[in-house]
Amino acid sequence: MNATRRAQYLEVLGIDVWLPRARGSPALTPAQPARAVRADRSEAWRALQREVSQCTKCALHATRTQAVFGVGDPQAQWLVVGEAPGAEEDRQGEPFVGRAGQLLNAMLRAIGLARGANVYIANILKSRPPSNRDPKPEEVSSCLPYLMRQIALLEPVLILCVGRIAAQTLLGTDAPLGRLRSRVHHFGELNTPVIVTYHPAYLLRTPADKRKAWQDLKFARSVFRELTAHPERH
Description:
Elements: H1 3-13, H2 31-53, E1 71-72, E2 78-82, H3 87-92, H4 98-110, E3 119-123, H5 137-154, E4 158-162, H6 164-171, H7 177-180, E5 185-187, E6 192-197, H8 200-205, H9 210-229
Parallel strand pairs: 2-3, 2-4, 4-6
Antiparallel strand pairs: 1-3, 5-6
């Protein structure tokens, strides 16, 4: 990631890259500011996780077993975003478990990735909606800022958005998923690239569309390679 984009992420987080030095104190080595930034980011991450675990901003806190913050590599270049926790996710406190999670893991492996290694997985909502219904607007408005802060902390090179609701929410559109596929979108002021594909749960119900999902994954991989091969262009 180039220095300009990294600085934008750190500005969103309120983290200073360079530390003030008292008069007469020894000069900081280049490694010292970097360590300080990593420490600040780690603390910001822990604080955000605590905040999510205690959140009562919408009515879903009353029916959840626990908040589902996210899982994976906190320095990941890939961020996978889904819709909301289901029953098993609510029970285990981890997104994308069960059959849908197994399929997501297989999808990631197909493009050379692995759960927990250079991949972070999160949802739009951190609490399970009853009966796995669609999120309500007030629930999304309460939870989306948490995801935005996760994006700022992670500094992902690419976001892979799985499912119609996650894609429409993140991109602020009501366009059908079919029109959102096979294109590079961008999220937020930081202009993070976004690729859209099908939700693994949908693919379990509609296996005929797995071929289309494979095309999406190959497209995402090619975009990622271009972004990392020429970061100065982005």
